[in-house]
Design brief:
Chain lengths: 277, 460
C-alpha cells in the first residue's frame, strides 16, 4: 500500500498527487513512468513520473480525469492509500550532449515535459518551452516551467491566454526566426506529437516523442503497448516510451489507443451510476 | 474394473464447463484414490522416481494412499516437492513419472499425478496453515521473481534458516501460476495457499518491485549474501508478419494476463478484454491450449488452433489437447499464418494461412514443416492470439554487468544454478527458456542447496 501525502487540484480536471514510494523515488529519472492500481479490483494504469524527491522517498504524478480509474484515483484524499504503485519503468530521457533544445508540452502532457525541461536546465542546456492548452482555465505548471526555461511560450486553442493557435505554429515561428535547436522533444496527445514531428522533419531537426499506448504489466511481458518504429515492432514499456518522432507510425498508434473505447465508455457510465446512488 | 486401466479423472461436462472458468477436473474421491493406489506394483527399481525432476518417493507415498494414510502420504511428497497441488495438476506426467511406470507397458500407467493432486488437496482441506518456528542463521538471500523456481528455492532456504525476501514485479506473487495458467486448470486459491505457506515460514514477499528498474542485482548484493534469479521467460515472440499490430491481435501473454491476473472474464472487472466471436490461436503448446479455451469461455462461437506441424507433434500436454477437443476447439494443423487482414478501422477481419507438409527432421529432431506453394487461403476471424513462444526478458541482463547469457538471452548457469557472477544463482525458464513448472522447481531446489553451500563456504 502506498500513501498519498499530498493532493492538489491544478485545474478543473487535472490533479497532482505526491505519493510515498521508496523504491521508485530512489531510482526515478525524467522520462520514466509508474504503473498503479487504485484498489484491489483496479486496472493497471501507467502514469508518467512528474517529479520525485529521493530524500523524502516520494514520487509525484499529475493526471487528468478521463475514465474510471482516474475518477477513482481522484476520489482518494491525502492520507489515503493506493493499492499498487510500481516503477520506475521505461528508459529515462537521454539528455546528454545537447546545447539547445525545444521542449513541447500539450495539455496534461506538459506535466511529463516538465521534469525533462528541468533536467536539461540543470545540466546547462538552453531550454525553450512551448506549451499548449485548449483554454486559459486548463493551464498548468506555468511557474514551474518559467523557472527552468530560457524562453517560455504559452499558446491556447481559443486565444484566451498566451498566443492563439497550436504548439506547432509557435514552434515554426521560433525556428523560422532563426532559433537553431539540436533537439525537439514533444510530449502530449498523439496528434500533437505527430504534427510536431511532421514539422521538424521538414527542417531536419532531431525529434523525440514520448508515446503513451495502452499498457498492462509495463515490464515487457505482453506486447500490449507495441508500436511500429522505423518499420520494426517495439514495446513502448521497455524500448521506450521515448522514440524518434520521425520514425513512429502515429496513425497505427492512434488506432491501437482506441481499442477499448467502447468498453471505457460503458465503464464510466456504470461507475458514475454507482456514485449517484 | 480392468486392472490395466487407470481410474478416469472425474471432469465437468465439456459443454457446460466451456462457458465458465471453474476447474475442469474435479479430482478423485478417497475411495477412487485408494483403488488407483492399489494398482502400483511397487517395483524394486522405481523407474517412476527417476522420471520425476524432483524425485518424489512415488511408490512410498502411493503405498500410504493405498492404506488410507493420506496425511502421511503428503509428508512423503513434501520432503522433495514444494507445490504438489500445483504439480499434480499441471505437470506433463505422460512425459515424466508416468512415462516410466511399468504398468504402462501392458496397459495404462498408474495415475501418479492424480494421486499427488488428491493427497495435496486432502492435506490443504484438512490441515490449517500455521506459523513455523525456524531458528534463523543470520544470513539473507534475495529471490528475483515469484514463479515456481523461486517459490521452491525460497521454501528450501527458509527451512534451512535463511532470511529470504522474494521480489516480484507484478502485484501478485506466483508468476505464470497466476497470470498464465487459467483458473479452470489451476485455481488461484491453491497458488495463494502456497505463497501464504511460505510467508508462514518467515519468507518476505515484496510485490511491485522490478529488478533492473526499482533495484538492481548489484544493489541486492550489497544487502544480501546471495541472489537467486528466477525471473522466467516472459517476453512474447511475435511472427513478424503483416497485420500483427491490428486491433484484435494479442500475444497469448497479454490475453492470458488480462483474463487470469486481471480477471477480465468477470462481469465487474475494470480491465477489458476483447470477446472475439471467431478466434484463431497460433501455436501448439500449453499456452495455445489455455488461450483457445479461455477465448471459448469468453463466448466465442468458433475457436481454432493453427499449428504448423501435425497433431502428433503438438507440444501441449495430452490431457489439455483432449480437453480442448471436447470443448469444441478446432485444430487446423499443418498450417501457418502468412498475414493478418484488417478493415479500415484497424480491426482484424481474417488470417491468411498456407498449408504445410513435413520434410526432413531439423536440429530439434522434429520433421521440419515446409510451406506448400499456392495453398494460401483466408480464414475469417475477428481475433488472433499469438502463442508461438517466449524468451527471457532482457531487463536483468542489460542492467547486470558480467552476467553471462547465451544467444537466446537465457542466463548461463550450471546444474546447481551458479552463474558467471559470484553470489548470483539462477534457475527455471530464465536459464532453460520456456519449460515446465516441475523443471523450474527442480532448478530452484538445486540452487537452494548450492546457495547454502556457497554461503557456508564463505563464512568459513
Amino acid at each position: 500500500m502506498y500513501k498519498i501525502l499530498k493532493k492538489e487540484r491544478l485545474n478543473s480536471s487535472v490533479t497532482r498527487m505526491v505519493i510515498e514510494a521508496p523504491f521508485v523515488a530512489k531510482k526515478a529519472q525524467p522520462g520514466q513512468f509508474i504503473i498503479l492500481r487504485v484498489d484491489k479490483d483496479g486496472e493497471r494504469v501507467p502514469f508518467t513520473i512528474a517529479d520525485y524527491d529521493r530524500e523524502n522517498e516520494t514520487v509525484t504524478i499529475i493526471f487528468q480525469v478521463v475514465g474510471a480509474e482516474t475518477s477513482l484515483l481522484n476520489l482518494k484524499n491525502e492520507g489515503d492509500y493506493i493499492e499498487d504503485f510500481v516503477g520506475p519503468l521505461g528508459n529515462p530521457t537521454k539528455t546528454d550532449g545537447y546545447k539547445k533544445v525545444a521542449v513541447i508540452g500539450g495539455g496534461v502532457g506538459s506535466a511529463i515535459a516538465y521534469p525533462v525541461a528541468k533536467k536539461f536546465h540543470q545540466q546547462g542546456t538552453v531550454v525553450h518551452t512551448v506549451v499548449g492548452f485548449r483554454n486559459k482555465e486548463l493551464v498548468i505548471l506555468a511557474d514551474e516551467f518559467k523557472a527552468v526555461s530560457d524562453k517560455y511560450l504559452l499558446v491556447s486553442d481559443d486565444g484566451s491566454t498566451g498566443k492563439k493557435g497550436f504548439v506547432t505554429d509557435a514552434l515554426k515561428e521560433l525556428i523560422d526566426s532563426g532559433e537553431a535547436y539540436d533537439l525537439v522533444i514533444a510530449i502530449g496527445p498523439i496528434p500533437m506529437m505527430k504534427f510536431v514531428s511532421k514539422l521538424t522533419k521538414g527542417y531536419g531537426i532531431k525529434t523525440i516523442v514520448s508515446m503513451n499506448p495502452i499498457m498492462i504489466d509495463g515490464t515487457g511481458m505482453c506486447g500490449g503497448c507495441r508500436l511500429t518504429v522505423g518499420g520494426e515492432t517495439k514495446f513502448a514499456c521497455v524500448d521506450g516510451p521515448e522514440f524518434d518522432g520521425h520514425l513512429v507510425d502515429f496513425d497505427e498508434a492512434m488506432e491501437r489507443g482506441a481499442m477499448y473505447k467502447k468498453f471505457e465508455r460503458s465503464e464510466e457510465c456504470r461507475l458514475f451510476g454507482k456514485e449517484v446512488q | 474394473m480392468d486392472i490395466n486401466k487407470r481410474h478416469p479423472m472425474p471432469c465437468r461436462d465439456p459443454l457446460v464447463r466451456n462457458k465458465d472458468f471453474k476447474e475442469v477436473a474435479t479430482g478423485y474421491d478417497a475411495e477412487t484414490a485408494i483403488e488407483e493406489a492399489k494398482r502400483c506394483l511397487h517395483c524394486k527399481h522405481r523407474p517412476c522416481v527417476s522420471g520425476c525432476p524432483v524425485n518424489i518417493a512415488i511408490p512410498d507415498f502411493i503405498a500410504l494412499v493405498a492404506e488410507g494414510k493420506f496425511e502421511e502420504a503428503y509428508q512423503v511428497i513434501a520432503k522433495t516437492s514444494a507445490l504438489p497441488a500445483v504439480c499434480g495438476r499441471v505437470c506433463p506426467q505422460e512425459k515424466q513419472c508416468e512415462s516410466k511406470c511399468v504398468r504402462g507397458i501392458k496397459g495404462e500407467s498408474v495415475g501418479i499425478g492424480r494421486l499427488e493432486r488428491f493427497v495435496a488437496d486432502y492435506h490443504n482441506a484438512n490441515t490449517p496453515l500455521k506459523k513455523a518456528d525456524i531458528p534463523k542463521n543470520g544470513k539473507r538471500v534475495a529471490i528475483v521473481g515469484s514463479g515456481p523456481s523461486s517459490l521452491t528455492c525460497a521454501g528450501d532456504l527458509a527451512k534451512m534458516g535463511y532470511a529470504v525476501t522474494i521480489f516480484e514485479a507484478l502485484h501478485i506473487a506466483g508468476g505464470v501460476l497466476v497470470y498464465g495458467i487459467p483458473e479452470f486448470r489451476l485455481p488461484k486459491a491453491i497458488v495463494q495457499r502456497e505463497v501464504d505457506g511460505l510467508k508462514d515460514m518467515g519468507v518476505d514477499v515484496e510485490t511491485n518491485v522490478v529488478i533492473g528498474r526499482s533495484i538492481s542485482i548489484d544493489d541486492m548484493l550489497q544487502k544480501y549474501d546471495a541472489v537467486f534469479v528466477g525471473s522466467g521467460a516472459g517476453l512474447p515472440r511475435f511472427m513478424g508478419i503483416e497485420g500483427e499490430n491490428l486491433k484484435g491481435v494479442y500475444s497469448a501473454n497479454e490475453f492470458l494476463t488480462r483474463i487470469n491476473l486481471m480477471k477480465a472474464y468477470k462481469e465487474d472487472s475494470r480491465t477489458p478484454v476483447q470477446h472475439g466471436r471467431r478466434v484463431a490461436v497460433v501455436g501448439g503448446g500449453n499456452v495455445a491450449m489455455d488461450a483457445a479455451r479461455c477465448a471459448k469461455r469468453l463466448g466465442a462461437q468458433e475457436v481454432c488452433i493453427i499449428y504448423r506441424r501435425s497433431m502428433e507433434e503438438l507440444p501441449a500436454r495430452a490431457e489439455e489437447v483432449e480437453n480442448a477437443i471436447e470443448e469444441q476447439i478446432e485444430f487446423k494443423t499443418l498450417m501457418n499464418p502468412t498475414r493478418i487482414l484488417g478493415n479500415e478501422n484497424g480491426n482484424v477481419t481474417g488470417i491468411e494461412c498456407v498449408n504445410m507438409e513435413l520434410g526432413e527432421p531439423d536440429e530439434s529432431g522434429r520433421r521440419r514443416p515446409v510451406a506448400i506453394k499456392g495453398s494460401e487461403h483466408i480464414i475469417d476471424v475477428d481475433s488472433v492470439i499469438i502463442a508461438i513462444g517466449t524468451s527471457p526478458n532482457p531487463l536483468i541482463k542489460s542492467t547486470t554487468a558480467g552476467l553471462e547469457v547465451d544467444k537466446r538471452g537465457c542466463i548461463v548457469a550450471d546444474e546447481n544454478g551458479r552463474t558467471s557472477r559470484e553470489g548470483v544463482f539462477a534457475g527455471g525458464d530464465t536459464v532453460t527458456g520456456a519449460a515446465t513448472v516441475i523443471k523450474a522447481m527442480g532448478a530452484g531446489k538445486a540452487a537452494a542447496k548450492a546457495i547454502d553451500e556457497y554461503i557456508k563456504s564463505k563464512a568459513n
